[in-house]
Amino acid sequence: MIIIRKRRPAVQDPSELYAFQTDTPLGDLRASVLLVSLGGFVDAGQAQRLMTDHILATLPHTVVASFDVDQLMDYRGRRPTMMFDRDRWSSYSDPTLLLYRVTDADGQPFLILSGHEPDYQWERVVKAIRQLIEALGVTLTVSIHGIPMAVPHTRPIGKTAHATSPRLIGDHATVFGPLEVPGSISALLELRLGESEADALGFAIHVPHYLAQTQFADAAVVGLEGFVGATGLNIPAEDLVAAAGLNRAEISQGIAGSEEVTQVVEALERQYDTYMEAREKPSLLATDIRDLPTADELGAEFEQFLRTHTDEA
Predict the structure, then answer these.
(1) Stretch 139-163: mean pLDDT, rounded?
(2) The sheet that has 200-208: what strands, in order across it?
(3) Percent of the chain at pLDDT above 90?
(4) What is the pLDDT of residues 93-106, one digit of tens each?
(5) Beta bridge partners of 67
(6) Taking the CB of residue 14, how many other CB atoms lie within 10 A of it?
(7) For residue 158, with 0-12 CB atoms within 10 Å meaning exposed, 13-18 middle and 19 or more buried, which class applies?
(8) Contact 262, 255 (CB under 8 A)
(9) Range 166-171, long-range pairs (CB < 8 A, 24+ positions)
């Protein structure tokens, strides 16, 4: 009798997904904090992107490692842009996934993993990131992004904290119970780190749902405050705060120009104030808002106003 044994599929080495981009010894690249900034299924108000762009524009940094995005990206699912100039292709916006080493205002190093969230091989990517975490001495991994909420922009911005251990976030009130959401690389990384008893935490910044599709820099400021508070890093915020002030003025002007949006904001303000006065902890998402326009409808109307306002300017 002939016995046919099935071959086990070869295990792909996670280290083949990335390459170091420096000759500096790994011991000299060590940093205790890693900020993961890979987008995901949602980043309402562009909170994560605005915060990450601010950090990289404010502080000195170098590229430590790069990932092979050709193995990880669905190009036809989200096509990179190219520039056509008269009779030739002149440029290509190639997608990247880069690990930066950043130095804060006190000279303290930390890492940022930023770029396109991989479409493929999530578990292998997570293993690759964990290899980098171990090689570079990371002891705390942080993620921050925006989520749409039925809250007004005229009230204090809330955030939902999550972590691999309660000691990392302390007594943090939440408006959520069990909730099934689409997964992301950063969420999977935090889950896997927790399974190995490593420290990781994140903040989901509450962004008004009618601003989810546009920039809401105030959310980025809150995200940066959360990141600094959790890590003790010294990251100047003046430029981001100034940008948030301009953004807030533009939002207020846009809302004032739409009676429908103004009514929604006023309704959300009443809802928020009632919630705070009652000192109860139900989910803000559970409030009946069936009579209000949808987030997509408000977002489309507000974006159209901003385009018109920009054209007139």
Answers:
(1) 95
(2) 18-20, 61-67, 97-103, 109-115, 33-37, 140-149, 200-208, 159-163
(3) 74
(4) 999 999 999 999 99
(5) 18
(6) 18
(7) middle
(8) yes
(9) 168/140, 168/199, 168/200, 168/201, 168/230, 169/201
Is 254 within 8 Å of 165 (Cβ atoms)?
no
Distance of CA 100 to the CA centre of its chain: 16
Query: How far apart are alpha carbons 221 and 231 in whole angstroms?
Result: 15
pLDDT in tens, 27-84: 999 999 999 999 888 899 999 999 999 999 999 999 999 999 999 999 999 999 999 9
| Contact of 231 with 218, CB cutoff 8 Å | no
Query: Both tokens of residue 25?
Result: 């010894």
In the chain, the amino acid numbered 179 is L
Q: What is the pLDDT of residue 3?
A: 62
Cβ neighbour number for residue 74 with a 10 Å cutoff: 10
Instruction: Specify whether the CB–CB gap between 18 and 113 falls below 8 A.
Output: no
For 87, the enclosing helix (H) or strand (E) is none
Q: What is the C-alpha separation between 310 and 312, in angstroms, rounded? A: 5
What's the pLDDT at 278? 76
**pLDDT tens sequence across 202-220:** 999 999 999 999 999 999 9
Nearest-5° angle of CA 135, CA 137, CA 140? 125
* pTM of the complete model beyond 0.90: no
| Amino acid in the structure at residue 174 | T
The neighbour count for residue 60, using CB atoms within 10 Å, is 10
**Strand, helix or coil for residue 145:** strand
DSSP H helices in the chain: 47-58, 122-135, 185-195, 217-231, 238-256, 259-278, 295-312
Contacts of 282 (CB under 8 A, 6+ apart): 175, 275
Reading the block at residue 137, the tokens are 């001495």
Residue whose token pair is 């981001």 = 240
Concatenated DSSP letters for 76-107? Answer: TTSPPPEEEETTEEEEE----EEEEEEE-TTS
pLDDT, residue 286, reads 44
Q: Return the CA Rg of the chain.
A: 22
Q: What is the mean pLDDT of the chain?
A: 89
